[in-house]
Amino acid sequence: MKLPFIPEDAPFTGDQKSWLAGFLAGMQSAKAMVGSQAGALLKSGAVSAPILNVFYGTQTGNAEALAMDAATVARGQGFAPVVQGLDDVSIEEFSAMERVIIAIATYGEGEMPDNTQLFWEALSASNMPQLPAMQFGILALGDTGYDEFCQAGKLLDVRLEQLGAQRLVDRIDCDVDYEDMAEEWINRVIPLANDGSAVTPKADTIPAVVKSIWNRKNPFPSTVTINSLLSGKTSAKEIRHYEFDLADSGLSYETGDALNVMPINNATLVSVLLQRLIIAPDFVPEGQIKTIDELLTYSYEISTPSREFLAAIERQAEDDFFSHVMSGGDKEALANYLWGKDTLDLLNLNSSIIFSPEEFLALLKPLQHRAYSISSSPKQHPGSVHLTVASVRWQADGREHQGVCSTFLADRIIDGGKVGLFVSPNKAFRIPDNDDAPMIMVGPGTGIAPFRAFLEERQVLNAKGQNWLFFGDQTRAADFIYEEQLQKMKDSGLLTRLDLAFSRDQKEKIYVQTKMHEQGADIYEWLEQGAYFYVCGDATRMAKDVDQALCDLISEHGDLTSDKAGEYVNNLKREKRYLRDVY
Ligand SMILES: Cc1cc2nc3c(=O)[nH]c(=O)nc-3n(C[C@H](O)[C@H](O)[C@H](O)COP(=O)(O)OP(=O)(O)OC[C@H]3O[C@@H](n4cnc5c(N)ncnc54)[C@H](O)[C@@H]3O)c2cc1C
Ligand SMILES: NC(=O)c1ccc[n+]([C@@H]2O[C@H](COP(=O)([O-])OP(=O)(O)OC[C@H]3O[C@@H](n4cnc5c(N)ncnc54)[C@H](OP(=O)(O)O)[C@@H]3O)[C@@H](O)[C@H]2O)c1
Ligand SMILES: Cc1cc2nc3c(=O)[nH]c(=O)nc-3n(C[C@H](O)[C@H](O)[C@H](O)COP(=O)(O)O)c2cc1C
């Protein structure tokens, strides 16, 4: 089990810090002693500041970063914050805690993030003890574009209430532009956790926290140095390799992190939309200082329709079928109807649909960055960061439809043009600390991105651990991206095994999990030898099937019932040897 994180700048001396870390780690095995022991410890004066437990449930690192922010604020107010992932605490330890702040993201379709699933299972069990002594606050992260907005945070909030814990403050549900709301909430909740025992330290005794200056509000303007097509001419796809110059920006990253790209909309689409709505491009809407052309180009999502936009269209469209799927309550039917339709398609449902510029803007969401798994190792490519991106394009209603960001990268960065970038650290998705540990990586399609980085990293480190990659896509001839580099890695022995699944090269579909089944005995043996199992790529279909295949092969080759195989997989998760970066 991972040691709790006691921040570098915690208000302890070095000795106190290592002692406290040891003490807390000891408590993890001693179970259920946390509250009383920590209380005694505090009363004895050995540690002057009261403990505040700050947890995060995260998939891609946002909630973890907010937990760190909360810890910084708590420290400034005289608490001794202890930051942990929700997979780093046993339910007995959790039950004994008194002051708890949780930052939690939602994943899948209203699901818990990977690092929260086992904790949630335990917390929702019928024999879970009551928590009358606990005070808690929940900061939920989500995206209103999903049906089940902030569902994980909502579930946790209700469950803690059912268990008798007291809210310090109401839960906050944050959308994609969460920074300001989250900061305000953190600043509100921490003082409420203070029962008088936390004494604000002198300002000059609080060490400054160093944060990257590059973030969503201030992305680093980087130059694209390489934009090359990886897919072959006959491919049904367009997967591209990008390299960005980091110059002396100070923007740093680690393998496993995601790079966020701030896109700019397609000028042609902006122009067609304005024509359709009969709005002059240089019109400045009420309350704005920029022209509508600029606003639609740089500031609003103009492709994927928002819920508010859909509802407004439904009111005007007089389209029986659309009204039926909108009001019928069948989410799948609505998703199927909307699949591939953008804002313009919906406006065109009926030529009489019209909005004023102000009404139209009010129905759009702010333009958001897109995340991409970094495909380079900074050790192998100092000063540069690489991405592997599938350009999203499809034909419908006689015109090409485009994904905003992937085609911005592919088509709309004119020579020397800059791209706004910032990094989302993903500390949970890293190569093993132990260079000798074997790695099994499953990454079809663009899912290969972080594994190219992992392999490059191990190459530089001269790590001796064995590496096994499962890769695939539609055809070998056109979709075997990074073939030359992977082949070299294979020849040099860095890549111990490479299993390929090209789905459309034969009558029957062959997927990565087909190959996993074929190699089940060896995968099981690798796992028994301490291998880490990584998955990256499509979340909705591939990652679920790979998870099932993993359980199946463990059951077969470990000679275990499916329940026991499930427990084996849960142990991999607890040991942080089953890690996923899926989207
Ligand atoms: C942590 C993380 C890591 C990621 N890593 C990568 C990566 O390494 N490489 C990568 O390529 N992507 C990656 N993605 C996905 C990426 O963030 C974007 O979602 C993707 O590039 C599409 O963005 P876009 O702006 O081009 O498309 P958007 O404008 O966001 O449009 C996407 C929408 O277009 C519609 N659509 C897409 N395809 C079709 C189709 N064929 N027919 C009809 N409609 C369609 C769907 O409604 C879809 O939701 C990652 C995502 C996350 C969260
Ligand atoms: N939600 C969707 O319906 C959908 C569809 C496509 C892509 N995407 C998204 O598009 C982005 C890029 O995708 P990509 O081009 O990198 O890869 P991809 O579409 O995931 O395709 C990579 C390979 O995976 C195969 N595949 C399809 N279903 C699978 C399954 N259930 N299990 C295992 N393998 C499966 C594909 O085969 P075949 O194509 O021959 O079946 C292909 O050979 C990702 O964000 C992905 O999530 C989503
Ligand atoms: C594949 C995927 C699925 C998601 N599903 C949901 C969802 O069902 N509901 C929701 O509110 N947000 C959803 N989100 C949005 C995340 O919760 C949000 O981006 C959050 O900031 C991520 O935080 P993290 O970096 O801590 O994981 C999803 C995001 C991704 C990439």
What's the structural blueprint in terms of helices and strands?
Layout: H1 14-30, H2 34-43, E1 51-57, H3 62-76, E2 80-85, H4 91-95, E3 99-105, H5 117-123, E4 135-141, H6 151-162, E5 166-167, E6 172-174, H7 179-192, E7 220-229, E8 239-245, E9 258-262, H8 267-276, H9 292-298, H10 307-317, H11 320-327, H12 331-338, H13 343-347, H14 357-362, E10 370-373, E11 384-390, E12 393-396, E13 399-402, H15 404-411, E14 418-424, E15 439-442, H16 449-461, E16 467-473, H17 476-479, H18 483-492, E17 497-502, H19 512-518, H20 520-528, E18 532-537, H21 539-557, H22 562-574, E19 578-582
Descriptors for this entry?
19% strand; binds flavin-adenine dinucleotide; alpha/beta; binds NADP nicotinamide-adenine-dinucleotide phosphate; six-stranded antiparallel sheet; six-stranded parallel sheet; Elongation Factor Tu (Ef-tu), domain 3; 37% helix; Rossmann fold; NADPH-cytochrome p450 Reductase, Chain A, domain 3
